[in-house]
Write a structure and sequence with these properties.
Blueprint (H helix, E strand, L loop, with lengths): L3 E4 L2 E4 L49 E3 L5 E4 L10 E4 L10 E2 L5 E3 L4 E5 L10 E5 L8 E3 L5 E3 L5 E4 L9 E5 L9 E3 L12 E8 L3 E7 L7 E8 L2 E7 L4 E5 L6 E9 L11 E3 L15 E8 L2 E7 L7 E8 L2 E7 L9 E4 L7 E10 L11 E4 L8 E10 L3 E6 L5 E5 L4 E5 L6 E6 L12 E6 L3 H4 L1 E7 L4 E9 L2 E14 L10 E3 L5 E5 L17 E5 L15 E4 L3 E7 L5 E6 L4 E7 L10 E2 L2 E2 L11 E4 L5 E7 L2 E6 L4 E8 L2 E8 L7 E7 L3 E6 L14 E8 L2
Antiparallel strand pairs: 1-2, 3-14, 4-5, 5-13, 6-7, 7-8, 8-9, 10-11, 12-13, 15-16, 16-19, 17-18, 17-20, 20-21, 22-23, 23-26, 24-25, 24-27, 27-28, 29-54, 30-31, 31-32, 32-33, 34-35, 35-36, 36-37, 38-39, 39-40, 40-41, 42-43, 43-44, 44-47, 45-46, 48-49, 49-50, 50-51, 52-53, 53-54
Length: 715
């Protein structure tokens, strides 16, 4: 894949001096498997060979260490398994000839031996050797466009010890560091063509806890090796080709969107199939409601009320409690089939010196609702002494508000993800103006479309609005001038292209830093190995100059500022100028990270604190959240307090920044406004907050009913 950076209309090819090497991935699939996943079966698999499943053997090629020009060499020209590696004068002997297989192996000695990381070691340093080819994950390699060669299982780089150039210098495995000792050149040409989109996604059997999901064959120039099955961006199973069916565990009563991507041996991933919506029936009929909650009490602090009650009982299980203020539902606390919901709720942002009445009802998994609890009344204090003082609705929209920026006059611009246009809203009056449609935006039948916004630090004079969006072929960053409350389409400059897109995992947040640089979060495009590939723009935090050029102090000489991210959608700077980032996990936990220059945050080997997170060089998260209480998107920092907007968790976290950690974690608006997408600082030390409740995963424009809120903060 060629990556290009455009300034105005003149393309400049990135990395012209780099070796033409690209990503290859293990056949074993992503490292983290959801607890709900079950092994896929091949019940409906076709045994026929698809186009490109066989490939002629390639002629052996040399792999040259860049500083010395010497060849990667099996010591002593000995084919004995376990023999180590060094560099040596190129001499055309078999121990210096290499082929790159469609299974991502580096083979030598006439393809009888494979380059191997000894004993599956994944921590730095590790020993590189040859061994009998066995298909192990420690024999899978990525050839990267920056000249590095990475072990797929370990994430470590092939390394000439000390960057030395002398004959017989040992070669092993170290944490990737960008040094010259980790740079190689070769004529090996890996596969860069993704498979076609799998067709005819459909379900067969559907029960209360399982579904049979199938699709038709995807084609590839070399051959499809795996099909990855997702629901709503979460990996469920990887199915080895040629099988085209998976038996999946599901949750009764939960509506999911199923789809599948095809993957080849080189790690190229197709775009996603169409989505199939399922709602499994309940496993048993249940008409018995829970008992009413008892013991409801209320305590008040300023304009915040805290409610507590005793748990209800149910013949199957209580799934949620709905909280009513007067006769209006103002929130909910939810549990799962295995975890009961909490029995406390915080109601923030109330009017001072006002009496409020509350009651609570219990709900089970089949929507049977209890009678309501006894009511309780409480009067708020005369002033606000809490985190949130008030909440007011400043606007509504029929589309998904995504990016949001505040102008100097206190008005806001926000992007409408599926409608592909930008709105100017005056929060004081509710007046709205459409600035226009952004050119070349295309949705993904998922979470792509018109995403992040940022205004230039000198917007008052330059009028540059920065936009990240999906196109028919990629994700990209552009800038367009805003004049007289309109987008000037003719002024558009495409700053960066080639960020891979997919149905989900597109990232999309933009943020100018105090250094005047533009930072952008990118998703892994549903291919976790992109996140560790320093030749890929995906699964990264990127950093660029305002004109789209690469800053001279970026750590890898390209746009990458940090890597090892899955689907980051939150960026914010604190008072010290440090960058904080929020990203979606797969099925275990989400994470908040303090981003450092060149940092590796571990995906796909590490999700939050699960997986091989102890690997040398991986950065630990500052905070994690179970996905059932998270799926968090945007973040904002006000007075060195971090606010995290969560969708599935339907809440706003408040966390105090203390050193490099986050303390005094509070949950606000738990269920009050539903799914929260974007939070941004507002004038006067408050927050803007947007919802994402309807039409969030289908790319259909104007099928939503969303709120834009202003939150007044207290102490």
């Amino acid at each position: 894949m060629s990556l290009h950076r455009f300034r105005s209309s003149r393309p400049v090819v990135l990395g012209a001096a780099l070796v033409a090497l690209t990503l290859a991935v293990t056949l074993a699939g992503p490292a983290v498997t959801p607890a709900t996943a079950t092994p896929a079966t091949a019940a409906t698999a076709s045994a026929s060979t698809t186009a490109g499943e066989t490939q002629a053997a390639a002629a052996p090629a040399r792999i040259l260490s860049t500083p010395s020009g010497r060849c990667l060499d099996v010591i002593g020209n000995v084919a004995t398994p376990g023999t180590g590696m060094n560099i040596y004068d190129c001499n055309n002997q078999p121990n210096q000839g290499w082929t790159f297989s469609t299974a991502s192996e580096l083979k030598t000695f006439g393809d009888t031996r494979c380059l191997d990381v000894a004993s599956h070691v994944t921590t730095s340093p590790a020993r590189a050797q040859i061994y009998t080819c066995n298909g192990g994950a420690n024999q899978k390699w990525r050839l990267n466009a920056n000249g590095t060669i990475t072990g797929v299982e370990s994430g470590l780089c092939l390394d000439v010890t000390g960057g030395a150039t002398a004959n017989s210098t040992p070669v092993g495995m170290l944490t990737c560091n960008g040094s010259v000792g980790q740079k190689f050149s070769t004529s090996l040409v890996p596969d860069t063509t993704p498979p076609s989109i799998p067709g005819d996604a459909h379900i067969s059997t559907l029960t209360c806890n399982s579904v049979g999901f199938g699709w038709t064959v995807s084609t590839d120039n070399v051959g499809v090796t795996f099909y990855d099955v997702y629901h709503d961006g979460q990996l469920m199973a990887s199915v080895a080709a040629p099988a085209r069916r998976a038996n999946l565990r599901v949750v009764a009563g939960a509506t999911w969107g199923l789809y599948v991507n095809a993957r080849d041996a080189a790690g190229n991933v197709s775009q996603a199939s169409q989505t199939v919506s399922i709602t499994p029936p309940n496993c048993q009929a249940d008409t018995q409601p829970p008992t009413a909650p008892t013991g409801l009490t209320a305590s008040v602090s300023g304009t915040t009320v805290t409610l507590t009650w005793k748990a209800s009982t149910d013949n199957i299980g209580v799934r949620a409690y709905d909280i009513y203020r007067g006769s209006v539902k103002v929130g909910a606390v939810t549990g799962t089939a295995s975890a009961a919901p909490a029995t406390t709720f915080v109601d923030s942002g109330l009017s001072p010196a006002t009496t409020y009445g509350y009651f609570v009802v219990a709900r089970d998994g089949q929507a049977n609702v209890s009678t309501h609890s006894a009511s309780v009344s409480v009067k708020t204090g005369s002033g606000c002494a809490q985190a949130v003082c008030s909440v007011s609705q400043v606007g509504v929209d029929t589309d998904i508000p995504w990016g949001l920026v505040t102008l100097a006059d206190g008005t806001i611009l926000y992007s409408r993800r599926d409608a592909h246009d930008i709105t100017h809203l005056n929060p004081a009056t509710g007046a709205k103006t459409t600035l226009g449609t952004v050119p070349n935006v295309q949705s993904t039948d998922g979470e792509g479309g018109l995403l992040g916004l940022a205004i230039a630090p000198d917007f008052a004079t330059t009028h540059w609005l920065y936009i990240m969006h999906t196109t028919a072929t990629d994700n990209r960053i552009v800038r367009i001038k805003v004049e007289n409350d309109s987008l000037v389409a003719s002024s558009e400059q495409v700053l960066l292209t080639g960020i891979l897109r997919n149905k989900f995992h597109n990232g999309g947040r933009l943020r100018f830093g105090p250094d005047g640089k533009l930072y952008a979060s990118t998703g892994d495009a549903q291919n976790g190995d992109n996140a560790q590939n320093l030749a890929s723009l995906n699964g990264k935090v990127l950093r660029m100059n305002a004109d789209g050029t690469v800053p001279s102090d970026n750590p890898f000489g390209n746009y990458i500022w940090s890597y090892g991210h899955r689907n980051p959608q939150g960026l914010a700077f604190d008072s010290q100028g440090r960058l904080w980032e929020q990203e979606f996990g797969n099925s275990v936990m989400d994470e908040t990270n303090l981003i450092v220059r060149g940092g590796n945050y571990g995906w796909p080997a590490c999700e939050g604190t699960t997986g091989t997170c102890g690997t040398a060089g991986f950065r630990a998260p500052a905070q994690t959240y179970p996905t059932s209480e998270g799926s968090c998107s945007g973040i904002a920092i006000v007075r060195d307090v971090l606010y995290v907007a969560c969708e599935r968790g339907t809440r706003l976290y408040r966390e105090v920044i203390s050193g490099t950690g986050l303390t005094n974690v509070q949950v606000l608006f738990n269920g009050t406004y539903g799914r929260l997408r974007t939070v941004e600082p507002a004038p006067g030390g408050g927050l803007w907050l947007t919802t994402s409740n309807l039409g969030d995963k289908d790319s259909v424009p104007n099928n939503s009913d969303e709120k834009l809120l202003r939150v007044t903060l207290g102490g």
